[in-house]
Specification:
49% of the residues lie in helices and 12% in strands. The protein is α/β, with parallel strands linked by helices. α4 packs across α7 and α6 packs across α7 (153-168). The chain is globular and about 45 Å long. The mean pLDDT is 86.
C-alpha cells in the first residue's frame, strides 16, 4: 500500500520500543527511502553494555561519526529532497551523551560535535514512541540480542526519563506522541492502519495517539 508521504519523517523513542520496525513499515506504506541506525556496525556497543562506564565515550563518538557519514551521503545524493523515513533524530545524540558520559567526556564530546557542524534537514514530522521501562525490558529480552540482555532496568528508566524531558520541550517539527505500550503498530495491521490514518491528518503542532489496543 502506498500513500501521500509526509516528506522527511523521523521515528524516535528508547531502545526496544519498536522504532526501527515502525520506520521500515512506514517507508513501505509511503514508498519512500530509509535512513536507519546501524548499531551492528558499532564495535564498542557490546562492550558498552558489559561496562557502560568504560566504553561510553568511544560508543558515543562512533555513533556520531557514523551518523555524520550517513547524512553526508544522503545530502550528496539529494535524497532529502524527496521523501525519507528515519529511525533517529540527530539531536538525541546529545541526550544520550548527557546520560552516559562524565563531565570531562561530555565536554570533549560537545567539542567534537560542534567542530563537525552537522546539519540535518528539519523533519516534516517526528513520531515519538513511548513505553515504560518494564515493557521495553520485556521486548528487549524477547528479541534475543545477547548483549542487550545485560541492560539494567535502571538504565532503561534513565533513557525513558531523558526522552520524556527531551520531547516535552521539542518544538522544531510537528510531533506525534504514540503510546506504544498497549498496541502493536508493527505486527497488527488494524493498529498500524489506525496510526497511518492519523499521521496523514497531521500538518502542524503536537498530537497524541493513544488508541485502545485491538485483538491480535
Amino acid at each position: 500500500m502506498t500513500g501521500h508521504s509526509p516528506g522527511y519523517l523521523v521515528v524516535e523513542g528508547p531502545i526496544g520500543v519498536g522504532k526501527t520496525s515502525l520506520a521500515r513499515r512506514l517507508a513501505e506504506a509511503f514508498d519512500t527511502g530509509m535512513l536507519l541506525e546501524q548499531p551492528e556496525e558499532n564495535p564498542f556497543l557490546e562492550r558498552f553494555y558489559a561496562s557502560r562506564r568504560h566504553y561510553a565515550l568511544p560508543t558515543q563518538l562512533f555513533f556520531l561519526f557514523q551518523r555524520a557519514r550517513q547524512i553526508q551521503s544522503l545530502k550528496q545524493r539529494d535524497l532529502f529532497a524527496g521523501s525519507t523515513v528515519a529511525d533517529f533524530l540527530l539531536e538525541k545524540d546529545a541526550m544520550f551523551a548527557r546520560v552516559n558520559l562524565d563531565d570531562d567526556e561530555l565536554r570533549l564530546y560537545e567539542q567534537v560535535y560542534t567542530q563537525m557542524s552537522l546539519e540535518m534537514p528539519r523533519p516534516d514530522m517526528v513520531i515519538y514512541l513511548q513505553a515504560p521501562a518494564d515493557v521495553l525490558l520485556e521486548r528487549i529480552n524477547r528479541r534475543g540480542v545477547a548483549y542487550e540482555r545485560r541492560m539494567e532496568r535502571d538504565y532503561l528508566q534513565q533513557l525513558v526519563d531523558s526522552y520524556t524531558r527531551f520531547f516535552h520541550h521539542y518544538t522544531a517539527s510537528p510531533l506525534l506522541v504514540v503510546n506504544a505500550a498497549e498496541i502493536n503498530i508493527v505486527d497488527n495491521d488494524a493498529d498500524f492502519q489506525s496510526l497511518l490514518s492519523y499521521i496523514r491528518k497531521i500538518r502542524s503542532g503536537r498530537h497524541f495517539f493513544n488508541p485502545l489496543a485491538t485483538a491480535s
